């Protein structure tokens, strides 16, 4: 029934929203995506603030259970709805590796991308080479972490792949060339075949972000 369907409130250009959407698709797609246009301030509407006073996207509504913070949502979905236990292993050491890569995305990869891009994109700040270098360092680490592995934590796809994939495909769409990172390139390709409706659930949103960035600044970030 429609009441069993989860609602994901988000904005497709936003990488963390797409990571959750990919997870939901992977788990069988029993959800609706409710677009919240953050550029028009829709996240400040009273109904949205009731669900999430911090007015951030993504926000999940699972039959009246509201949760925000994308990486918390990913863990919740794997715990609550993931019959495929491999997405978030229960064995403590395996789970710790997934948590580590989620932290790597939040504190390094996505963080350094934002530190470099957002001041220029939203406030017209000149490009900062040092910040770009920090961002590139994150990709070098990811290339190293992937090594011979099929996915970021080993042979099986996990929620960490969804988080990191949404970040990497965002800067790829923005024009960052991954040619120097063959492990990362092969991994992006591999994931794109494993995630249902990949094009609509991730790729188009990444491209929308790139268009948004280009509409905000004429500077060449990548």
From TrEMBL:
Biological process, per Gene Ontology = glutathione metabolic process
> Its Gene Ontology molecular function terms?
glutathione transferase activity
A Pfam family: GST_N_3
- Superkingdom to which the source organism belongs: Eukaryota
PROSITE patterns found in the cross-reference section: GLUTAREDOXIN_2, GST_CTER, GST_NTER
List each copy of the GST C-terminal domain by range: 91-219
Start and end residues of each GST N-terminal domain: 4-85
Q: How does it assemble?
A: Homodimer.
The name on file for this protein is Glutathione transferase
């Amino acid at each position: 029934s429609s009441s069993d369907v989860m609602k994901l409130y988000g904005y497709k250009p936003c990488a963390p929203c797409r990571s959750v959407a990919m997870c939901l698709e992977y788990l069988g797609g029993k959800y609706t995506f409710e677009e919240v246009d953050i550029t028009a301030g829709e996240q400040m509407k009273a109904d949205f603030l009731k669900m999430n006073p911090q007015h951030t996207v993504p926000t999940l509504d699972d039959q009246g259970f509201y949760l925000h913070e994308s990486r918390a949502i990913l863990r919740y979905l794997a715990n609550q709805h993931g019959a495929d236990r491999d997405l978030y292993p229960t064995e403590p050491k395996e789970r710790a590796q997934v948590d580590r890569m989620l932290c790597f995305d939040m504190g390094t990869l996505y963080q350094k991308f934002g530190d470099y891009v957002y001041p220029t994109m939203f406030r017209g700040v000149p490009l900062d080479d040092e910040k770009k270098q920090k961002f590139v360092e994150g990709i070098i680490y990811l290339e190293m972490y992937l090594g011979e592995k099929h996915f970021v934590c080993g042979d099986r796809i996990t929620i960490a792949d969804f988080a990191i994939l949404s970040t990497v495909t965002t800067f790829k769409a923005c024009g960052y060339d991954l040619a120097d990172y063959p492990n990362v390139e092969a991994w992006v390709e591999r994931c794109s075949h494993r995630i249902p409706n990949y094009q609509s659930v991730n790729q188009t949103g990444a491209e929308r972000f790139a268009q948004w960035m280009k509409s905000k600044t004429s500077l060449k970030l990548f």
